[in-house]
Write a structure and sequence with these properties.
This protein has 143 residues and is an all-beta fold. It folds into 2 domains: 58 residues, no CATH class; 47 residues, no CATH class. Helices cover 0% and strands 50% of the residues. It has a 3-stranded antiparallel beta sheet with strand order 2-1-6, with no helix packed on it. A 3-stranded antiparallel beta sheet has the order 3-4-5, with no helix packed on it. A two-stranded antiparallel sheet has the order 7-8. The protein is elongated.
């Protein structure tokens, strides 16, 4: 097809970006037409886990139409729309001195927290190195 300036151009469909959090701390970014659908669920829908306690593999699927699947990813742990910013409360232990009515003092460890952006829409369109994104403390679950 030639780029003839007189030919009418088809309007370009709006696109949506998604961030995929995958196994081994890998982040991927995909861009798909806004009309396409994404599903996330068991690799084999309706399959029952075996009595051997083998975990079901989960899959993220992308469909152009109900009958036209375009992609499947089996290493995805979670995904989100790229336009969503996420903050996490980071906990910090602090020792506080308390005074009893008798004049005695004692220290007590209390937890303070601040909200820290862990995923920010400003990281895109050029997704920065995932190592630059603040991580949760090792004893915290990010979600």
């Amino acid at each position: 097809m030639t780029d003839n300036p007189k030919e009418p151009k088809e309007p370009k469909e709006p696109m949506k970006r998604f961030i995929l959090e995958c196994q081994n701390n890998v982040l991927r970014r995909i861009e798909i037409p806004a009309s396409w659908k994404i599903t996330f669920g068991p690799m084999i829908p309706g399959a029952i886990e075996s009595h051997h306690k083998v975990r079901q593999t989960w899959a993220l699927r992308i469909y152009e139409t109900k009958e036209k699947q375009r992609a499947i990813f089996t290493d995805v742990l979670s995904f989100r729309d790229d336009s969503i910013s996420i903050e996490q409360r980071r906990k910090t232990p602090v020792e506080v001195i308390h005074h009893k009515p008798t004049g005695e003092e004692y220290t007590k460890e209390e937890i303070e927290g601040e909200w820290v952006k862990i995923y920010d829409t400003t990281l895109t369109p050029e997704l920065k190195n995932p190592e630059d994104v603040p991580k949760a403390a090792s004893n915290e679950v990010p979600f």
